[in-house]
């Protein structure tokens, strides 16, 4: 594990991943994976103890991926536009928030029907959507806290307050300062 600053990308990173975005996973110097979802899929193909991919249901993974891609396609641009408007105090914040809320409402409805976004069981969908929803909730914390999305807030808080979340969100010393790799795994 190498923690970096995006405004000071090490040459070693740019050599293996010229696009220069994070995350990047290098597997034994032979495989480079540059997208979060692809990294999740690779990791779960190696070890999926909670069956997040629903291995016994061949149609499930394509359905999950379609759901994730559609959410990212619609929600991410809306969220990024809303975040910029909020940051620069633009006067169209409510209109831009409404674009995000269209997707939040869909998730709220799904979470009113079952414990997780895709079904009654946790799946890749939950793990893939979590970073986006965490980021959105942080754009306007007070508004989100007071919003009517009770199921969505409970779902998000369940992850954020979990011991596993604290473990995976551990901060590492910047790699550029010491050039020491941080190992992690089944410890």
From TrEMBL:
Does the record carry Transferase as a key word?
A: yes
Q: Which InterPro entries match?
A: Glutathione-S-Trfase_C-like, Glutathione-S-Trfase_C_sf, Glutathione_S-Trfase_N, GST_C, Thioredoxin-like_sf
- Sorted UniProt keywords: Transferase
Q: Where is the GST C-terminal domain?
A: 57-184
Name the CDD domains for this protein. GST_C_5
Query: Which terms does the record give in the GO molecular function aspect?
Result: transferase activity
What's the protein here called? Glutathione S-transferase domain protein
């Amino acid at each position: 594990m190498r923690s970096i600053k995006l405004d000071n990308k090490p040459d070693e990173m740019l050599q293996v991943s010229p696009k220069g975005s994070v995350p990047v996973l290098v597997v034994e110097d032979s495989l480079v994976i540059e997208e979060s979802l692809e990294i999740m899929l690779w990791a779960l193909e190696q070890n999926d103890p909670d069956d997040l991919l629903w291995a016994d249901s061949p149609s499930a993974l394509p359905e999950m991926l379609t759901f994730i891609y559609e959410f990212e396609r619609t929600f991410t641009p809306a969220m990024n536009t809303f975040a910029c408007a909020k940051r620069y105090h633009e006067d169209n914040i409510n209109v831009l928030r409404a674009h995000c809320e269209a997707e939040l409402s869909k998730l709220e409805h799904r979470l009113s029907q079952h414990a997780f976004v895709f079904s009654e069981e946790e799946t890749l969908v939950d793990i893939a959507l979590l970073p986006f929803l965490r980021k959105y909730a942080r754009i306007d914390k007070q508004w989100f806290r007071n919003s009517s999305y009770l199921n969505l807030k409970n779902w998000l808080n369940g992850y954020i307050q979990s011991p596993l979340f604290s473990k995976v969100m551990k901060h590492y010393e910047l790699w550029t300062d010491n050039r020491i790799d941080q190992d992690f795994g089944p410890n």
